[in-house]
Every structure is written in C-alpha cells, then in structure tokens.
## 1
Amino acid sequence: MDMQIELKDVSANYQIGPIRKPNVLNSVNLTIESGTFTALIGRTGAGKSSLLKTLNGLLLPSEGSIRVGNTVIKSSNQKDAIRKIRKQVGMVFQFPESQLFAETVEKDICFGPLNFGVPLEEAKEKAKKVIDLVGLEPSILSKSPFSLSGGQKRRVAIAGILAMEPSVLVLDEPGAGLDPQGKKEIMSLISTWHQQEGLTTILVTHDMEDVALYADRVILMDQGKILKYEKTKKIFSDTDLLESWGLEIPQARHYQRRIEQETGIKLPNVCLTLEELADALVAVGLV
Amino acid sequence: MNKLILGRYFPGESWLHQLDARAKMISVVLLIAMLFIANNWLAYLFLWLITLFIMHLSQVPFHTYVRGVKPMIWLILFTVMLQVLFTSGSNVYVEWGPITISEYGLINGVFIFSRFVMIVFLSTVLTLTTKPIDLTDGINKLLTPLRLVKVPVDDISIMLSISLRFIPNLLDETQKVMDAQRARGTEFGEGSLFQQMKTLVPIFLPLFASSLNRAEDMANMMDVKGYNSGIKRSTFRRVYWKKQDTWCLCGVFFIGVVTVLLRG
C-alpha cells in the first residue's frame, strides 16, 4: 500500500501546565517514501517525539499540513481524519509498558483492534498471531500483564500495537531500559515485521548501532528543525559533522576511521557493520 | 490534561515570587477571609481591584489564570444558579413553582460568583509564584507551635512535600497514558456517560500501578537514606523573613481594614 508521508511547513507548539513552548516544530518540510525504514536522531528536546506525535494526530500542527497515505491533517481537523490516521499509524511510545491495563494479556492486545471496530473473534486471532511474532508463548495470553517481567511487558505492549495491523509504524526508543539481549531481540523483531508487511517505519533512537543496522534513511533534527535527511551511508560518511552534533559513530565506522588513519589507505566504501568492514579490508588487501 | 495548572509553579522573578512563602500563605488566607466579610458592591469592587492588582504583580499572563478557573466553571455556575433560582427577597421578577428569581437572589449570585472566582485566582497566585518545596517549608514553620501538643509536624510536612512534588509527574504521566490509549483508538469525551466512564479504566489502572510502584521505590529509598520519623532532622533550606514580607502583611491588614469599613 502506498503510505508516503509528507509534511508541509509544519509548525507546532506544546503546552505543559502554565508554560508554553512555542515552535517545538519549526516549519518542517519532509517527505518519507512508502516502505522505507527511517531513523530519527537528535539531541533531547530536538523535537523528535513531537514530530512523531504529529504523525498520529496527537499533536496538531499550528500551521501546515501532514499527509499520510491519502489522509490529510491540518490545524483545524475533523475527527474522521484523525481516526483514520490513527488506524493507519501504529505508535509505540517510550516505555510502552506503562499503557498496559487489562486483566489479561489477551484483552490488552485486543484493545486496539476492538477500538477500531474489529470483531472480537478476529481480534483474538490477531492476538495469537502477534504474541508469537514478538517471541512469547501463547500461554501468556491468559496471564495478567502486571505479573510479567519488564522485557515481557514491553513485548506485550508492542504486540498490542502490531495487532492493529498499521501500515505505518512509529517507534519512540523501543529498546530503552532493556538489557542488551532484550533490546537486540526487540529491534530484530521490528525489522522482520517491517520487511514482512512492507511497512513504512520511523524509529526514534539514540543508539547509532541500531541506525547503522536497520535504517536506510536518517533524519537529523535540532531545535524543531530538520538539519539533515540523507541515506544512512551518506550521513555516516561525514563523521566530523556527526561528532559536532554530539552524536556517536557506529563501532565499525569508528574502527574504519582508525584503520584509515593508521595505514593511510582509504577503504572503498563507508562501512556500518563489522561484516562490511571485514569485506572492505579483504578487498583492499589489508587482511 | 496539560492545560491543568493546579499546583504548577510558574518560574519568575516578580516581587511576589521573592516573598516568603509564609507571608504569602497568611496573606492569601486573610484575603479569602475578607471575601466572606464583604457584603456590598463597593467592598466587592474593591476586592476585585486588589485581586487583579495582585495578579498583575505576579507577572503571569492573565489567560493562565482564566485556565485555572475553567475546570471548575460548571461547579461555580451550578452554585450560582441555585442561589439565583431559589432565593426570594425584595423585588421578585419571576415566580414559578419552587423557582423564584428575585433582585436579592441575582445580587447574591453575582457576589457568590465573584467570591468563587477570586478564591481560585488568589490561590492560583500562591501556587504559581511559590515553589512547592517553599510552600511545605512554610507550612512546616507555621505549624511549629503544634509541636507543643505532640503533633508530628515534620511527618506531616514531608508527606505534603512528597505529594506536592508528584502532582506534576502524575499529570504528565496521565497525559502520556492518555496519548498512548488515544493512539490505540480510544476517544475521550464521546458517547454516553457510561461509555465515557469506561474509557477512564485504561487510564486509571496504569496510573495506579505506576503510582504504587513509585511509592514503593520512594519508601525504600527513604529507608536506605536513613529517614526515620521521630528523629530530629536539621534542614538544608533556610527560610528568611525579610522586610518586604512584613510590608506585605501590613498591606493585607490595611486591605482588611478598608473592607470592614466598606461593609454595609
């Protein structure tokens, strides 16, 4: 399905109690192609989460418009459009386990689909399917979500979003606060689901390894604006620029730079994974 | 939910921000007491001017205060309606069954409305210009005399400061959970009353769960840090009574005298 996302001159303000933050997004123009895996990076407070929220109608733009597929959201919006967009865009918040509430895991996973009018039987089928997908036993469906471990809760929460079968998946640091193994598993299940279902995925992350491994495009944000929007290889080719933005460099790329400095030989391509680096080293005859 | 300003602090440098919390608390209590003493147009007009002046002094934009009243506006209007519809006296305009609209009732309605709104405004001035931590320090000091009758003042004030401390967190978290459930297709404020109540379950259960967890963590942390009620604790923050605080109380006293004089 064509799920191109287009933001035109989007500005948005944010209100916390008596304090108003103007322009958390400052005339953002952006086109994300359908079927791509985009990483959204930048410092804390750069406007990453706000950008995600606008994609789901949770934060309405003060100016400009957002188009997802063929649904358009503007500052003055009808409920239908927002409802439609929420059905298409599945959003996994930071620490999504804080949204679990039902007596059983199954009921919690069915909550989303039922809200969008899926019949109960079908929703239960979907619950079975996604619980397997996130790597949990079907027996967990009858347990209380509050009795699970942190990692399991996180998977159940993500399953609750996947069960809505969104065509756009938006994730805000899905691996935050998990152990490295758990984080890796979550990331690879998201990547698998992305490829299987042909989703358009947008991932907010601080981990450059994840960016290097999974994303094919990168958006770099600062102060509510988009600084760079490039293919992943391109953005990691200019390591000095990244460092000037206080961002880390993937391990493999870091080694590549060290090797290039020590030997004086320039490797033919930008290496983002250790495998790529090994291949490149063989290619230039260093190994 | 983000629009709720109850208990939120508005950072600033105004004269009111710099006043001692005790002076501000006493003044607000006295001013609210005056609202109940006032009983004619002149006194209310005077108190309105004073309230608006105080709000101006806080340097907080006026619309912030209006937002403070908004959540309570229905309760206020309901009370005013009761007053207007069921009070008889002097010129009666409408009389229909138990309902009577009289001049006396209308005037009382306006007074009650003013009283409510001013109470909200004045207490909002207090919370907007005083950090929660200063408020609890102030309360602790004000309650000091009760120590003589064995009231656990320190425990009360630490309980207060912990609960005040977590109001913003709780509100922010409520907003987060609401956003998360909205993203899963919940629509708030729609459908019948029963349906609306049902949409609250997915918000309150996660909030209860996280609050209980947090309380547990907090209790453990306090144990680890050696908190023990009944032991005399020294304080890190000192509160100072300055000259301007005395002036503030003098001003409030003067306003009180004028209000009593204006009283019919």
Note: Residues 209 and 250 of chain A are 5 Å apart (CA to CA).
## 2
Amino acid sequence: MNGRLRAARFLVDFDSGVNVARALGRYLRGKDHRGMGVGPGSRTLAKMTSSLPVRVRRGTFSSMGAMQGIPLEQARRIDADDLADWVVGQYGRGPFPVVVIGSPSGAAVHLAAALRAPYLPQTLLVAVRDLGTHPDDPQGAMVALAPTSRLVARNNPEVAVYHMHDPAQDRPMLEAMAYLRLKRLTLGRTLERFLEERLAPGGTILLVECTRTWRSRAVGERAYFQFGCLGGVPEEEYHNSGARIADYLAREHSPRRRWEPPEPDARRPEAEWGFDPALRGELESLAGVHGYRLRRLVTEEPQELSDFVADLHRSWYRRRGLSGQRLLVQSYVQWDPLWTQRLGAVPFWIRFNMQPSFDDLQRYLERAEAYDDIHVNLFSQGLWSPGVIPVQHWRNLVASAASTRGEIIGVDEDAYPLDTGSTLRYQPAFAALAPRHPLPAPLAITEIEQFLSTTDRPYRLAWS
Amino acid sequence: MGSLSGWDGHEFTAAAGTRVHAALIGPADAPAVVCVHGLGCSHRYFRPLAQALRGDARVVALDLPGFGRTRGPADTLDVRGLSRALADWLRATARGGAVLVANSNGCQVAVDLAVHSPQLLGPLVLVGPTIDRRARSAAQQFARLVADQPWERPTLGPVLARDWIACGARRYVQTFAYMLADPIERKLRHVPVPTIVVRGRRDPIVSRTWAQEVALGLPRGRLEEVPGVGHTVNWSAPEHLAGIVRPLLARGGP
Amino acid sequence: MRVRDAVVVVTGASSGIGRATALACSGKGAAVVLAARREEALQQVARECEAAGGVAVAVPTDVTDADAVLALAGRAVQRFGRIDVWVNCAAVTAFAPFQEIPLEDFRRVLDVDVMGYVHGARAALPRLREQGTGVLINVSSIVSVVPQPYTHAYSMSKAAVRVLSASLRQELRLDGAKGVKVCTVMPATIDTPFFDHTANYTGRKAKAMPPVYSAERVARTIVNLIRVPRREVVVGPMGRNLVLQAKLAPGFTERMMALQVDKTHLYRNTPAPAGQGNLFEPAPGTGSVSGGWHGKRQTALRRGASLALLTGSVAVARRWAR
C-alpha cells in the first residue's frame, strides 16, 4: 500500500489535527468540510442513524472506534513521513503567502482560512485496536500499550508519542481502541520541502502555540502516557476522582468507582492541544535562513483564540460591508470555514460541548456586542460524559443573548449526545441558513496586527 | 482394582534396583506368608492358595524382577541375582522371617537365599523343588513339563500364558539355563529353618526319589505328598497346601 | 514397553502437555514422578493422577539446576526403585522483536529449553543404560522444522532438542545400548496455558495459532511412543502437512509462516504489557492442561467441516454422474 494511502488509513477521522488539514485543504480547493471531509452531508442519512435505539447508537460509536483503530501488527508501519506526506497532499501547489503551523484550534482554522493559508498540524492522531484494556484501568492500559508506544517512537525519531487515555469523554472509542498522538519535534524533510516549495518568498510562518500542559508519565524514549485530557473534567479530578466520577462510573456500569492512574513524572504539552516548543527553534532558524517572517500566536488554552478570531472576523466582515451580526458557533471538528464565510457568519469555536466551553461562550456573549442571530452546532461524542451540557441550556443561553433568534442547529436533540448522525448533519444545517455572500479576498497578516493593536479587548493571547 | 483381580491389594516397593510388585490377600495384622513363584510364572498362580489362607494369614505373592508386574534388568538375573532381589525386598518390606512358600524354581531361589541371608528365612515350604538331579537337561525337563499337563487344572494354562508373555522369550530361556545349572542339592545344608517339602503325587517334574533326597538334605526338613495333583500344587490343590501351611503360622515369626 | 507399572518422570508436569502426559500415563497404571517449579500445582496434578489410577509423587524442580535434576532422578529411584521413561517437557518461550528482548531473557529460554533437557537426559540415561531398557522422550515442536519469527530463542531451542535426540540415539547405538530409546515429539499448536505465561515484548497479546490441537492428543502420542518408540513423531495433521511442505518448498514455507505468525499468533486487537512472564518466576496458581484455546472443540469442528465437505462433494459428484 502506498505511503499516503496507508497514512490516510492510519489517521483517525475525528482527530482535530486531521480535520485541520482536511478542512483547510478542501477550503483552499473550494470545497466545504461536510462529514468531516470523509463522509456525506446528508440530513436524511443523519436522521436514519440517529433514530436507532440508544444501545445501538452507543454501540455504533464503539464500533466506529474499532474500525478506526489499526490492527496491532500494523503499528510498526506507522511512519511520520507518510503522515507528513498525507498532510501536504491535502494542499495544492501554492504558492501560499502564509503557512500556519502548530497546535490545532478551531479558531485558528477559521483564521487560516481567512488568510488562505495551509495549516500543518503539529499533532496527529493514530489509533490502534485495543480490546484488551478497560477504560477505567489506566495503569493496565499504560503498560499494555507501552511496548507499542515505544515501538512507534523508535521507528519515528521525529515525533513524540503520547498514549492518551480518557475514560470521560472518549469512553465509547476507548472500548475498542487506544489513542496514540504523534507530536512532531522536528519538521522533517517533507514539511521542510513543503515550506521551501510552497511558501511564497518572504512569506509568513504563523506559529500557533498553545502552552497547555498536562501531567504525563514517560514509558520510554519520546513515549508518554497521559491520563485524561481537556474536557468537562478538570485535570485534578482525573488524578483524584471523587463523587462525581463515582456516579459517572456507576452510570456507565463500570466495575470501578474511582480511577487509579499511574504516578505522573512531569508536566508536558497536552497530548491533543498542547504545543511542543521543540519545533519552534527549528522554524526560527529556517525563517532566518530563508527570509521568512515568523509570527507567533500564543495562548494558554486552545479556545482562547475563539473570541479573538470571532471579533476579528466581525471587524473584517464589516470592513467589507457585511453586517457581522450572525454568529455561528461550531464545536470540536464540526467546523466549516467555507460555509462560515459564505454565510458571512462570525465563527466562534467551542472546543467541545461541556461546561468550560459553555462558560467560554457565555463570557463571549456577555462581553461582545449583541448578535442578531446565533446558531449553535454541537458535537456528539457518544455518551453523557461528566460536564456535558444539555441542549436546553445551550438554547437558553443563545436565545437570551441573541437579539432576533438564538437556536440549536444540526443536532438531533433526542439523540444528543449519542447523536450518531451529527457528523452528517452539521454542514447541511449550515447550508440551510441564509443568506449567501461571495467569498472574501484573503486577510493579510498586517490586518491582524492592526486589529490587535487597535482593539481595546483584553484577549488572552500573545502575538509576536 | 483389588476385587476384580481377586486380590485385596497391590503393593509396590522400591527394592532390588527396581519397583517390585506384590499382590496381597488377608488381614493386615495377620502373620505374613510370602509366596515365591517359579520360572515364567508370577504372583497370579498363587491366588487360589492365597484365598484359601485368607482368614489366617496375610498372603503376599511377589513378582521377582523380570516377571509378572516387576520390571527386570536387561541382563537376566541368575539364581543368585533373584535371591538377592528377594532378600532386598524382604528387608525393604520388613518381612524377614515370614513363612515362605515357594513353587518349582522358586524353591531354588528360596534355598539360595539361605546361602547369603539365612536370617531372613522363616518356616519354609518348598512345593515341587526343582531341578531333579537326574533330569538336568532341557529336553528332559520339557518332556516332563508336557507330561505334567494332564495333572493340572486346565485353568492354569491361560494364567501362565499371560505370565510367559510378560516375561518374554529371552528372559525365559536365559533364566531356565541358569536354573538348569543351579546345584540346589549343595545348598540345602545352609537352610536353618524348619522346612516342609511338598510334592504332588502325580508330579513328573519332581520325582519322589528326588523329593526325598531334598527332604533328607535339609537340616530340618520333612516330606509331604499331596494325592491326585501334579507339579503346581498351589494352583491345583490349594486347600490341601493351605492345610500344610497353616500350622506353620503359629510357630512362625521373626 | 508396557505403560502399566512403568515409572515415568515428567518435567513440566504442572500444565499443558506435561500435565496431560502425566495424567494419561497414570490412567494406564504407570507410576509418575511429577516435576515443575510450582509445588502447589504439582500436588494438584499428583492428586489427579492418583484419581486416574496411577501412583504419583511431586518433586518441585527447576530444570535449569543440574543438581536439582539429578536429585529429581534420585528421588524417583528412591520412591519407585527405577526409572523407565523420562519425558522432557518443561519449556518456556518469549515473544519479542529480536532487538527488544533483554539478553538475560533470551539466555533463560535457551537455558530452560535446551540445558533443562540436557540435564534431564544426563540424569536419566545412566539409569536407563544400567537397566538396559528405557525411553527418553524429548518434546520438541514443529518450529524445529518450520521456525517462527519473534520466538527466536524458542525456535532455536526446539531445533537443538531435535538434534540432541539424534545425537543421543547415535551414541547409544555405538555403545550398544539397544534397549534405550530416544524419541522426539513435535507437536503443532497445542491448547495449553503456554501462551498465557510467555515473556512478551511485542506489545501484542499472544495466542495459540490455529489450528489448535488438544494436549491430550500429544499425551496419547507419548503413551504410544512409550509402547512403541519411534525416532520422531509429529502431532497434529497440520503439523505433518507443514513438515512435508517444508521439505518440498522450504523458502515459500518460511515466508508463509512469517505472515501467519504475524496475523494469527499475536492478537491484532489486544495489546499486552512488556513482561518476563514465567521465565524466572512460575505463574501463580495450580495450573491446568488446557489453555482455553478449545483444542478439542476446534478439532471437532474441523472434523465436522471436513465431513460436511466430504459428504457435500460426494453428493455433488453423484449428481454429476447422473
């Protein structure tokens, strides 16, 4: 099997890094990001799948996990070069004025789309089949996957391997697979060549850095185990699970009532969203050698870019004569920059569907100038993880914040959060909104700098 | 297993450089009677005698190495080898001094025992002691064996056939050669214990003259004849033989 | 040699083939001497042997200790007076990519699987030769003929054992010890706990590579070998086919086996932590014959399928003939 095809098979379709590349790749080729870029956008199909009984839907999430995972003997064929090949294969020849590199962020996706920039994610997710470990046994999972993590790390000196194990949000997937997030520490020849060939001379490298760290434990050279991840459960609660987790585990019919994770030995970049600064040094010297400009957009949390990107879009639209009064809230990987721009809607990205994301949106809506219409689309991860906010609360929030209309779109409210049709439904829901606007001319970096220098909003980011 | 084979139990002892099998009948606390079989035979043909004595004695019929259920060495044991094995077994099972009933070539083994370990002997019963001095050739012995057949109970045949198969042709022939060459008459004077020589009246293998000679050669021997039977008195007239053995039990002991 | 009343020493008697062999011999009335590391498991097997109709004594032994193996032979003679059969069955394996296995683990596999057998043979043969009769049975494996990837030390060991048997046969012949036989048994994949306890550094759980045959089948073969000793016996029709195939097309067979091991000897969907398994410490518990790989059921299914195929093709052939 050719390397790129293999990479496509190995990469997980619902991964943030993968969807960054897919969405931008398609956007730059004039296509939308329906079905996460791999499936259709079909309301009918969506309705069919989400009307299945709960057990079946829950099972569907699990089997999706099982299908995404690669058989263990294929682990030796995971090749960071092949994955890099796949990423650059999403994009055309260019040349591009800007290339975005770094940690994934939905807000940054919209920013990159505005800049007409390819986005090279530092972190990609590969999953291996795992029917042997239990979601609530992190120690067992760590030791069982350690040889495989080490193997992948050994075969790929350019990456660090993070075996991420989260029984709160990822539970259905975890029943059938294990997550290995590969974080690039060096560019590697393929991405270097991409920059050389496709970044316009004097172009800009925009480095998106999320400094979020998490407790993890080394299981080998460049191989780590991380228990838990960003979501509705705070890091501390993962490592000292209390009553809320006990209830959750009881609801999920688990044999355990608390988690006993292995002792962490350091704080390292968070597996999915964190940026490993090892890459920065190389990019700095590359920029120096080739005369690129390096800009850094640094945040502590991935969604801290959301209000900045939303306001930026609003000001950008208004400069082009659009009202900028429609807010389109997109969650996790159900983003679609093409439709966002077509609708002239302001994108607000929420990382997931839980309390912290709810708070972020609430804070933004309180602070920002009122929107006329607010549409919220919610990702379904397949179970009532602790901290998932029910649809009604979201509706109440946006209904009270919007001047004209605040609604939930693209969500089967009876099925949520076990809405298996969610990925099929979000883009048609966007497309159902009116009106249409022509796609704008690309945003320039200088416009961002100008926006940041003139705004009085205290955005939680650093731009340099 | 015991009731099926007619014996109460089977005993295995690590002795004589092998694993010696013995079959048992009778109460454990009764005085012991050890039965020593002849060439190509085994414990099996002592069953009728054992049954007859079961009320009064603990009858133990062992298999000498290479016969019955006791595996023997590759090199066939001669008479001394067999008697040393018997001695070793008597010591290992603490049965030295028990009443010893031997048949046919087993008598040669028992008498040889006296030469090197007389202290292990108890009251002795030599049933059909071989080999008649006047017929020490294979041909003669074979002819006598044939002549003996009509005087045995027909049921003996299948029992012995099984034992011959277990022992194998090579061992049979070699042991027979040793038995033929064995000068039992020169050893009789070493036997310190009271001995009864038993002869079936119809026995062609052991002639009356020879039997008398044996009885006289023993320091404390006497002859008893059993009417109407041939060589294998223990099989063909067990009750009678039991009657001869029984009085020895009272006198017997270490 | 008759199995009844024979004194049979079995190493590796606490589980799998060794245990099944001990039970089978006991069932035929042999006296068995059980050797393995786990005393608790051995006592359990001893009880089962006695229930099956034999006599048994348990002697906890680590076969890598030459003195311990000599003591084992001594104990057998002390208890039963002789040794008729010695079955070398104690073996361990390790699954690992070649560069990943710690050298001490590699050495340990060779130590148990090769030197353990050597110690056993050295302890048994003088006795057997003195007695003039006896059977030494070395349990090897078809991997001695068709090796497998990831189990280098084990494959090497089983090949070594096969050669050990041959060399011993030759020497015994030259020494004129005609009554002492040395036999090699080469089982295919057998349903035993062997795969649960292996050292494993592949990151993937090991399992029995199908087709799986029951340990009792190997035990029956060993009992038959005691009765009629033969030089080498393969157990399992697949094994026999494989041996034949290896003779006819060795390169192809080697490649085919590599793929088969990758796909079916290690799980594709169940990871396993790295560990030494039972190399240095025996697995806890009282052991068992079967490993839960359904050897008997698989055999029954295979036979049923063959029968169905046969009757089906016969039916088709008949139709055609009309």
Note: The mean pLDDT of chain B is 91.
